[in-house]
Amino acid sequence: MADRLRLGVNIDHVATLRNARGGALPDPVRAAVMAEQAGADGITAHLREDRRHIRDADIGAIMAAIGIPLNFEMAATAEMQTIALAHRPHAACIVPERREERTTEGGLEVAARADWMAEYIAPLRDAGCRVSLFIAADPDQISAAARIGAPVIELHTGAYCDFHAEGDFAARDAELARLIDGAKQAADLGLEVHMGHGLSYDTVAPIAALPEVRELNIGHFLIGEAVFVGLPQAIATMRAAMEAARG
Ligand code: PXP
């Protein structure tokens, strides 16, 4: 179905748990394969500069083990660009890691350094990676993303989810309104719209219902839920919630 909302499962927190003991278990590659078998449309993983999530060797291992696309999350650094170009994942999602790379809302700062960012993403695009920019639902950031030729944006749902968890429903709804407006603006500019960060069974429905949104990337909640019900069940329940919201 052309219009099916894709679910990207972020397996970083399996790696976080592995790294807590410094050994090989639990294996994020096994999580990626299991997520694929459970119906994930893609795997998302972030090679952080401090390597606290996946490690360098995980990238090739995950890509070799899965038959679905890898969405490789990376900071906009020379080191990460070299690594991405060596692996050529299906998608490269540029995320902020340092304070000076992010806007006050937590997304990537694109508008204030649009020329620099355009140059940064060009080799990734030339290598065939679908470049995505993880930005706040801020009209200036969205129009800058379109201006520099990024094909995809991922809008940051973290504040929306945090306000929900805090019970500040007025602020949550204001954030949701910003996300709705942002998705419309982006789609009008020809951008493919993804969303993610902090989503759970409680917060996913209004986001999944937005017709402009093509993909959700969800990790922390699913890996946490997997401790109690197993990863396949957690993914199946999330998928059902997404599809119910889509109608
Ligand atoms: N999308 C992006 C760009 C992210 O950086 C993250 C977190 O690594 C996620 C989605 C998933 O967020 P969460 O783990 O809170 O579901």
Count the beta strands.
8
Question: Which geometry do the CA atoms define?
Answer: globular
Give the amount of beta strand, in percent. Answer: 15-25%
Round the Cα radius of gyration to an integer and report it. 17 Å
Mean pLDDT: 97
**Would you tell me which CATH topology applies?**
TIM Barrel
CATH architecture level-2 label = Alpha-Beta Barrel
**What is the CA–CA distance across the termini?**
13 Å
**Pattern of helices and strands:** EHHEHEHEHEHEHHEHEHH
CATH structural class: Alpha Beta
Provide the structure class. alpha/beta
Question: Strand order across the biggest sheet?
Answer: 1-2-3-4-5-6-7-8
**Count of individual domains:** 1
Helix residue percentage: 40-55%
Descriptive account of the structure:
The model has no long low-confidence stretch (mean pLDDT 97). 44% of the residues are buried. The chain is globular, with a radius of gyration of 17 Å. The two termini are 13 Å apart. The protein is α/β, with parallel strands linked by helices. The protein has eleven helices and eight strands. It has helices spanning 12-21, 28-37, 56-65, 78-87, 114-126, 139-147, 158-166, 169-188, 204-208, 220-229, 231-246; strands at residues 6-10, 42-46, 70-74, 91-94, 130-135, 152-156, 192-196, 213-218. Pyridoxine-5'-phosphate binds next to strand 8 and helix 10.
